[in-house]
């Protein structure tokens, strides 16, 4: 059985700690990340507890929006770290010269396939892609169990997704399905057919995660799929009635390399 996994990576971007002559002022560390306010807020709390002289300031945006912003700011960098995106986006940023090489102390613990050959970015964790659902309308028994379930007619108008132009995770899944079709049949037709049917079942492509989870907790839409870590952070939030399931029949998508 194959598992769908999406790697999150951290890269070191134009270091710019602002030195302070006044020792009472804290050093500022600016982070761009798509990991969501729950996860970012918790990491900020833990990091500042360990390093009280540092002030973490994070900006939550999609991985593509981070890339666009980094590209725009390339001549006048505003961030110190970029944390989180499919590695394909990091590879593109590295190729365009948007990143500064840096080798952290834990670099040797990261597999070769999960890091830049020239120390521009490093994988920090891997997370499976899951089907998330409104647990006030569905249960683990009634929710879809695999990719093929999502395109069945019964889910028409029930799926809510991120805008794939902004979401690196969603584009990774889409590309994985096309690549899998190419591997199994020698062409991309099945992959594109799956995407077409999924589109018919999709009620809305949300502009940002907050809108997506709000719709998911509403009266009509009931399904979403994406990163397990972000969905887990939302689970238990009273605002978002959310649960998730790991698919029984899944495929790999590795953003460290071409999906296979």
Percent in helix: 25-40%
Mean pLDDT: 77
Helix/sheet category: alpha/beta
Gap between N and C termini: 14 Å
Number of strands: 9
Shape: globular
Number of helices: 7
Poorly predicted ranges (pLDDT <50, ≥5 residues)? Answer: 1-7, 14-23, 228-234, 237-241, 245-260
* Percentage beta strand: 15-25%
The biggest beta sheet, please?
Answer: 7 strands, mixed
Question: Could you spell the SSE succession in H and E letters?
Answer: EEHEHEHEEHHEHEHE
Radius of gyration: 19 Å
Quick tags:
single chain; 260 residues; alpha/beta; 7-stranded mixed beta sheet; two-stranded parallel sheet; 7 helices; 9 strands; globular; disordered N terminus; disordered C terminus
Summarize the structure.
The protein is 30% helix and 22% strand.
Protein topology:
Blueprint: E1 5-12, E2 27-33, H1 37-50, E3 54-60, H2 63-72, E4 81-83, H3 87-95, E5 121-134, E6 159-162, H4 168-185, H5 189-201, E7 202-206, H6 209-216, E8 223-227, H7 228-234, E9 242-245
């Amino acid at each position: 059985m194959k598992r769908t996994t999406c790697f999150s990576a951290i890269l070191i971007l134009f270091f710019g700690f602002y030195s302070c002559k006044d020792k009472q002022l804290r050093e500022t560390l600016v982070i761009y990340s798509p990991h969501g306010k729950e996860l970012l807020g918790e990491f900020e709390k833990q990091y500042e507890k360990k390093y009280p002289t540092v002030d973490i300031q994070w900006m939550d945006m999609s991985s593509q929006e981070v890339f666009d912003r980094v590209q725009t700011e390339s001549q006048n960098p505003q961030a110190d770290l970029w944390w989180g995106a499919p590695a394909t986006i990091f590879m593109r940023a590295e190729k365009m010269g948007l990143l500064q090489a840096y080798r952290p102390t834990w670099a040797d613990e990261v597999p070769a396939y999960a890091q830049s050959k020239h120390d521009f970015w490093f994988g920090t964790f891997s997370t499976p892609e899951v089907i998330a659902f409104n647990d006030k309308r569905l249960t683990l028994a009634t929710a879809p169990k695999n990719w093929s379930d999502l395109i069945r007619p019964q889910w028409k108008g029930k799926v809510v997704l991120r805008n794939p132009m902004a979401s690196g995770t969603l584009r990774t899944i889409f590309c994985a399905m096309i690549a899998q079709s190419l591997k199994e049949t020698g062409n991309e037709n099945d992959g594109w057919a799956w995407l077409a049917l999924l589109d018919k079942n999709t009620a809305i492509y949300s502009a940002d995660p907050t809108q997506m989870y709000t719709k998911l907790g509403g009266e009509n839409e009931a399904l979403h799929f994406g990163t397990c870590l972000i969905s887990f952070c939302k689970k238990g939030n009273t605002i978002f009635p959310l649960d998730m399931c790991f698919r029984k029949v899944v495929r790999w998508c590795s953003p460290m390399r071409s999906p296979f």
